[in-house]
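Reopening: Chemotaxis protein MotA still failing for me.
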Amino acid sequence: MNPSTLIGILASVVLLGVVLFFSAENPSQFIDLPGLGIVLIGTLAATFISYPLKEVMRIFGLIGTVMRNERMYAQKDIEELVSISKIWMSGDIQKVEKALEKVSNPFLKTGVQLIIDMTPEQDIIDLLQWRISKLRAKEHAEAQLFRTMAGYAPAFGMIGTLIGLVNLMFMLGDGDMTAIGQQMSLALMTTFYGILLANLVFKPIAVKLERRTEERVALMNMVMQGLSMMSQKRRPAFMRETLKTFMADYEDELNDGNNGEAVSELRP
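Support: Ran it again with your exact input. Result attached.
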């Protein structure tokens, strides 16, 4: 499991434990299954209306992606690029094709194959940039799905609260203050559930997916830079140092902008 995700889950459990067992006289008061059902089912219903079925069905897979501790094989890609570049410099195309069979990164493999096919450098760059843009758009839409759900959850929490208040109005004539107080607390629980799900589940998943996309795009840009140098037949040693500097500069920028959080590793 991703360490930061695990820490977040544990912190959430601790937070809820404090709320339930230290801030309430009766922890069971925070359990309102009808209210939770209104928020969850309402949020899912609105999401199904907003998105095609195939996109909504990817929710569980995306949650699994956030939970996994994926790795970015930047160093491996650099070494494979440098190794293939050395063979390419020697002019032995058959050895290049044989080495290419061992490459696991499809983005890198596509670029090298285009170079072997003597495709002009600018055409290679244009194609790879198109693939990067396509990936960025696809994964932005995935993150936006959870941001949309984060907007729906509090709204359906308010709907549940309004339903509870309507029930409360019918009880005012009886003058039973205990029953009125219980109905008021239950009415507010749906708002609690909506805000909790939005800010502790949906929004964090969206941010995590966006961060993952940034890292994947950075790696793809690094590979594209290496392929450009390979197409120009730049020296492999120069290529290695340039790509290492590229990734180091990117990590520094990420750390400066995100309070020193390290870059996770994952494969584009």
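The chain has two domains: 1-31, 33-257. If you still see a failure, please send the error message rather than a screenshot.
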